[in-house]
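User: I'm curious whether this sequence folds into something compact or stays loose and floppy. Could you predict its structure so I can see for myself?
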Amino acid sequence: MSLINVLKKKVKTDFFTTPSHSQKFFIFSKFKQFYKYDISETDVYKPQEALISAQKRAAEIYGTKSTYFLTNGSTSGIIASVLACAKTGEKILIWDNAHPCHVNAVKLAGAKPVYYGLKKDENWGIYTQTKAEIIEEKLKHEQIKAVIITSPTYEGVVSNIGEIKKVCKKYGAYLIVDEAHGALYPFCDKLATSAIYSGGDFVIQSLHKTAGGLNPTALLHCNLDIDIDVEHALGMITTTSPSYPLLASIEKNINFLNSKKGRIKILELIENIENLKKNVSTCEFYEGDPTKILLKTVKLNGFELSEFLYKNGIEDEKTNEKSTMLLCGVGTDLKKLKKLERVLKALNY
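Assistant: Here's the prediction. I'll summarize afterward.
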């Protein structure tokens, strides 16, 4: 039985059990339906079996050795990956400007962080890709247990994971890929190849960033043949009272992305963004991940452009001195993009 069916079956019953709202006491009435499906692990017959089954089906869809559902964001996947492969005192190579969870994961494992830096593209104010030679230079001189790469970056810069994997294999280091912003990659040929298929031992994806998932749903993919206890690592940092509505939403989310309807939706998103870029001449657009709209103008710096957009009902995701980035996902419809197009065309020169 799937997680979705477990919840459908439970909502029709009337047990004397937890959670304390009893699926009927709606403190926040706008979330009435969520309360109805919010169950406890003791609430239904073997819900863990349904979760295990759903994760196995997900692994089949992605072609991984194992895939785990996360309800505490990609952060928990990064931490679990490091806990699974590193011991106290071992060294982990991380980007010096990475998400805070990277260094936090290293600290929680009792390991030691070793940092690598990246060059900046001064025209756009963003960091460039992680190249294999940068990683090899570090691995030559340090005994590194695992390497964490961010690809794609927030702004959509993708690194050559295949080449980085060759270097990691050469020096016996695990490769952990923070692919939080690449959850759509396995389902569209117009996007970069997912690290799942190009050498990542652990690949972490956020469903809520681009793939239409609820905050903070995410996935941890593992491609290792050897016996590394990922489940034990997850158990150390994950609650024993998981949100089954969120877990079921992950199952549903994956099924959608893998469906014909989902793949068409992704293609439509990319096509709509491409058309916007063709129709707007007031801005320059960065050529990276096509689901990210990174733009700049001649007369406004990034912060000024961000302010202009906000005043016109457009909120950016990230801004620097040179450029502004707008994050798009499967829920970014044509109406929203047309609004953005009108606002960008209204820029005065």
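Summary: The chain has a mean pLDDT of 90. The radius of gyration is 22 Å.
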